[in-house]
């Protein structure tokens, strides 16, 4: 039976107590969107259905009870931890949803410096975990720009990736085991082992589920020794992205594992590097890390490879090191950026895709050219590649536009979605993936069938099997 | 009514936010190494640049022409900002390349005009850097460059600039320029509106509130903590349309100035830097429930405070 908002709140209060059920209208309204429709919060114009309540879960048992309750009454639930989602994963697509907030489940359960793994609850901010393991001379190796604000549950749920991915991999390479609660309140624990071949790797049902299959309550990630004193930075300027991609490819296929390997196009480079790069320069940069011998050999090997590309000019490494030290975004930068948008109506958006080496430059060029030609009011259209693999790389499109002639609530329809559409089209046309690391959310869900092709059968079957009532984060990954 | 000729002066500074704790710790003995950090518009100047654009928009609605110009003193890192301003509608864009070791040249090619004396000498990046930092603590020299530019080259009648800028942060440049020009100077400006008859209505902070005055240029307006603090962005189309517009690069000598000599006369010389310890005491309040925590907060920290009020 369909429950009223009041009955939903009462039901939740019975499970967690009244203090942990948030019904403050303002907070609910703000929680109806995430960064995908951030203009709605910046300008306080809201169009999405208002959730019925936010429930602060404090234990796995509570999460299980909430999911049972939601299942019995077919109430949509939206899992949330850090709240930094960029693709609409936190948006309330239907009225009277319950946001299950795991940020109070913020205990670091165990740090095991012998077996080199750390276990923490879903609401532990990555920064908090990283700070703790650093005290032991260790690192998680995970450093998304949102490290100060994103939490472990969300980071696993979105298949996030960090700045040092070329060495440490994405979150999927770091998670050893986890605990997750499925609809019906079924608690599942996947044990922590180095590897196993006992059937399919079921971690991948959970990693990247974006709250559309289950709620992640606990994760165990690998730890690595931390040798910041050995870090070596390399930076270059060059004139075209095609060469930049070629250099990245050469580094990867020659077997080097820098922690960072990036190439910025002139537009994007202008935002970061105008103090040493000309305005038509691309910027190529690397960081090598690890034990002294490895870091040095990696940096020397890369320097030798780049020396083979006459168009690359070396710049002082201190530029790159200094830039790197200030790359993460905490609440201060996020607030400052919101204020900039409020005053100028100049909005910065990003869309990240991946493709093989043969296609990436074509996708970059084609999408960029089309966006400039087809979308009005663009003030910057650029991007960078920041995560490379043996067979290809990603492209992180970074673009700004002025919102002209429409209200803040229409920004996504007039600008953001058409741009995403162009990027998805150009990527799919050439066999790439439309999402490299932010998740499908609701923003790119309309393209899910094209993304998966015949393998959509597997994905869809997971949804039917684990969430038969369709209560998990409606509209996310699977379009309404 | 004749057009108002506005000149906005701005400085491109290192982004101090991007420096690490360790960089500041080393400051006392070695100075602050800012060469490697990204550059940003000095925040007060950014307000000034946007307020001037707003003034121009409002004047256009009243049928009055406002001709905008922008001037900066510095190295090549300023040029992208000048190009942005040109794309936004600044009709005049100039950079004075001037420094501690005499006239500084800029060898940049595309779209950048080079002043006569500037073209003569070639100086490398390090020279530009030294030059820029040489002027950081030389407000008299900066003011004389600006005043000379207004009198000899630009002939503007309204000068808008930020009230101060890092790293010197002395806040005297607007006063010195006003004195050199013999113009009145209004400080802590937060808004500038046209009245349509050649006069401006200017808002400025004073200790007890907001002052609104009506004034007629020429004058110097030093912008303070304005609510308008971000510069709008030009579209790629705007950039394309105005990309051939010239940026004037002048040497100080073009303005009849001998910077080396002026610097020797500069009274203010930085001798040492001290970091301020801004750490505050803090405690994490423990408690089983928010109610318990609120109770502890009240009993241990707030109740005494409330009593003393
Ligand atoms: C400034 C900024 C920089 C960023 N940089 C990066 C970057 O470098 N790399 C990167 O990968 N991403 C980046 N992101 C995106 C974002 O930080 C990541 O997607 C992050 O993983 C989200 O974590 P969160 O804890 O904030 O999750 P939330 O925002 O709370 O949720 C994200 C998604 O996961 C689901 N979810 C959250 N918690 C759970 C849970 N416990 N169980 C099941 N589902 C859950 C939600 O329903 C939602 O769909 C950035 C975002 C911002 C705002």
Describe this structure in words.
The complex is a heterodimer of chains A (about 475) and B (about 300). Chain A is about 35% helix and about 20% strand. Chain A has helices at about 5-15, 25-30, 40, 60-70, 125-135, 150-155, 165-170, 170-175, 205, 240-255, 265-270, 290-305, 315-325, 330-345, 355-375, 410-430, 450, 455-465; strands at about 20, 55, 75-80, 100, 110, 115-120, 140, 175-180, 185-190, 215-220, 225, 230-240, 260-265, 280-290, 315, 345-355, 380-385, 390-400. A 7-stranded antiparallel β-sheet of chain A has the order 15-12-14-13-17-18-16, sandwiched between helices. In chain A, strands 5-6-10-8-9 form a 5-stranded antiparallel β-sheet. The mean pLDDT of chain A is about 95. Chain A starts with a helix and ends in a 14-residue tail after the last helix. Chain A is built from 18 helices and 18 strands. Chain A folds into 4 domains: about 5-105, Uridine Diphospho-n-acetylenolpyruvylglucosamine Reductase, domain 2 (2-Layer Sandwich), CATH 3.30.43.10; about 110-225, Uridine Diphospho-n-acetylenolpyruvylglucosamine Reductase, domain 3, CATH 3.30.465; about 230-310, Alpha-Beta Plaits, CATH 3.30.70.3450; about 330-450, GMP Synthetase, Chain A, domain 3, CATH 3.30.300. By secondary structure, chain A is of the alpha+beta class. Chain B is of the alpha/beta class. Chain B folds into 2 domains: about 5-280, Rossmann fold (3-Layer(aba) Sandwich), CATH 3.40.50.620; about 280-310, no CATH class. In chain B, strands 1, 4, 5, 6, 7, 8, 9, 10, 11, 12 and 13 form an 11-stranded mixed β-sheet that branches. Chain B has a two-stranded antiparallel sheet with strand order 2-3. In chain B, strand 5 (about 90-100) and strand 6 (about 100-105) form a beta hairpin. In chain B, helix 7 (about 140-155) crosses helix 8 (about 175-180). The longest helix of chain B has 19 residues, at about 45-60. The interface of A and B includes residues 274, 326, 346 and 379 of A. Flavin-adenine dinucleotide (FAD) binds near residues 81, 86, 122 and 157 of chain A.
């Amino acid at each position: 039976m369909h429950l009223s908002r009041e009955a939903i709140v009462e039901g939740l209060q019975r499970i967690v107590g009244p203090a942990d059920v948030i019904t403050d209208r303002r907070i609910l309204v703000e929680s109806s969107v995430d960064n995908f429709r951030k203009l709605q919060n910046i300008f306080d114009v809201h169009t999405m259905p208002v959730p019925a309540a936010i429930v602060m879960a404090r234990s796995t048992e509570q999460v299980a009870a909430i999911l049972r309750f939601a299942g019995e009454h077919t109430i949509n639930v939206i899992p949330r931890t850090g709240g930094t989602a960029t693709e609409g994963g936190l948006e309330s697509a239907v009225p009277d949803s319950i946001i299950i907030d795991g940020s109070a489940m913020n205990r670091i359960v165990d740090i095991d410096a012998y077996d080199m793994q750390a276990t923490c609850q879903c609401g532990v901010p990555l920064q908090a975990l990283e700070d703790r393991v650093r005290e032991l001379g260790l690192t998680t190796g995970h450093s998304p720009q949102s490290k100060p604000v994103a939490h472990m549950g969300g980071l696993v749920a979105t298949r996030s990736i960090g700045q040092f991915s070329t060495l440490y991999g994405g979150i999927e390479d770091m998670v050893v085991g986890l605990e997750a609660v499925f609809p019906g309140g079924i608690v599942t624990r996947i044990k922590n082992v180095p590897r196993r071949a006992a059937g399919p790797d079921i971690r991948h049902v959970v990693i990247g589920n974006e709250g559309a299959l289950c709620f992640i309550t606990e994760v165990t990630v690998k730890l690595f020794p931390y040798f910041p004193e050995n870090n070596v930075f390399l930076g270059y300027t060059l004139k075209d992205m095609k060469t930049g991609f070629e250099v990245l490819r050469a580094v990867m296929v020659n077997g080097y594992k820098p922690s960072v390997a990036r190439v910025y196009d002139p537009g994007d480079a202008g935002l970061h590097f105008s103090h040493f790069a000309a305005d038509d320069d691309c910027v190529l940069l690397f960081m090598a890390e690890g034990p002294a011998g490895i870091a040095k050999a990696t940096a020397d090997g890369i320097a030798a490879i780049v020396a083979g590309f006459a168009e690359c000019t070396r710049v002082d490494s201190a530029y790159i090191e200094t830039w790197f030290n200030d790359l993460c975004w905490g609440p201060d930068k996020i607030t400052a950026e919101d204020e900039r948008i409020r005053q100028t109506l100049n909005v910065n958006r990003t869309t990240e895709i991946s493709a093989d080496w043969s296609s990436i430059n074509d996708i970059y060029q084609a999408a960029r050219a089309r966006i400039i030609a087809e979308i009005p009011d663009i003030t910057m259209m650029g991007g960078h590649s920041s995560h490379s693999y043996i067979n290809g790389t990603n492209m992180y499109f970074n673009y700004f536009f002025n919102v002209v002639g429409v209200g803040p609530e229409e920004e996504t329809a007039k600008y953001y979605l058409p741009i995403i559409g162009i990027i998805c089209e150009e990527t799919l046309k050439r066999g790439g993936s439309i999402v490299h690391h932010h998740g499908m959310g609701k923003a790119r869900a309309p393209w899910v069938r094209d993304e998966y092709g015949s393998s959509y059968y597997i994905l869809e079957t997971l949804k039917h099997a684990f969430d038969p009532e369709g209560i998990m984060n409606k509209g996310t990954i699977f379009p309404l | 009514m004749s057009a108002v000729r506005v000149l906005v002066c701005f400085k491109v500074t290192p982004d101090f936010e991007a420096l690490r704790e360790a960089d500041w710790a080393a400051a006392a003995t070695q100075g602050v190494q800012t060469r490697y950090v990204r550059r940003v518009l000095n925040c007060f100047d950014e307000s000034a640049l946007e307020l001037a654009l707003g003034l121009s928009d409002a004047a256009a609605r009243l049928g009055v022409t406002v001709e905008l110009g922008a001037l900066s003193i510095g190295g090549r890192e300023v040029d992208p900002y000048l190009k942005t301003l040109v794309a936004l509608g600044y009709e005049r864009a100039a950079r004075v390349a001037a420094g501690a070791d005499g006239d500084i040249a800029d060898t940049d090619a595309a779209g950048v005009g080079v002043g006569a004396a500037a073209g003569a000498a070639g100086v490398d990046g390090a020279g530009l850097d030294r030059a820029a930092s040489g002027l950081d603590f030389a407000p008299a020299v900066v003011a004389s460059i600006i005043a000379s530019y207004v009198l000899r080259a630009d002939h503007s009648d309204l000068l808008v600039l930020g009230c101060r800028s890092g790293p010197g942060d002395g806040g005297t440049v607007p006063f010195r320029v006003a004195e050199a020009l013999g113009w009145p100077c209004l400080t802590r400006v937060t808004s500038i509106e046209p009245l349509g008859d050649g006069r401006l209505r200017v808002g400025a902070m004073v200790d007890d509130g907001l002052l609104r005055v009506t004034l007629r240029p020429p004058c110097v307006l030093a912008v303070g903590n304005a609510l308008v603090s971000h510069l709008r962005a030009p579209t790629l189309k705007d950039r394309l349309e105005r990309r051939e517009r010239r940026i004037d690069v002048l040497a100080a000598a073009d303005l009849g100035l001998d910077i080396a000599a002026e610097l020797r006369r500069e009274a203010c010389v930085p001798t040492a830097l001290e970091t301020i310890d801004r750490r505050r005491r803090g405690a994490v309040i423990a408690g089983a429930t928010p109610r318990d925590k609120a109770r502890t907060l009240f009993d241990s920290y707030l109740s005494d405070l409330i009593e003393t009020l």
